Amino acid sequence: MGFVFSKSMNDSLKAQQEFMLMNSRLQLERQLLMQNQMRERQTAMQIAWTREFLKYFGTFFGLAAVGLTAGAIKKKNPGVLLPIVPLSFIFAYQYDMGYGTLLQRMKVEAENIMDTQSTLLELPKGQLTYEDLEKIRRSQSKFFIEK
Q: Which spans are transmembrane here (predicted)?
């Protein structure tokens, strides 16, 4: 009789462990999906912000180019056009970020760094562990009583 009861308990325990494993895996998959969705939304917002900024900066750049060109012709001094050089670099960067291939090139370079220079990615003092967090929590806790 005890063997039947024991076998039933073992089967129940095994089923519960499998359920917990499946449940934790499902939770991890959901967390990964949520983190990826958040990253995609943040990247989309960054690209949208860049495109919106480009509209305003493009207008400013166009007006500045026309104004500086008119000033250079009127004063017969080509040095007046000098501010167009840095403004054009800023405009080109913003355009590349909003509509060009800058993000793809950055992704390729990031993958290259991860593959060939992974030591640059190491955290100071190594990866954070549970013990490190507990030590910090204990040092900052006002309610922790050392035994």
A: 53-73, 79-97
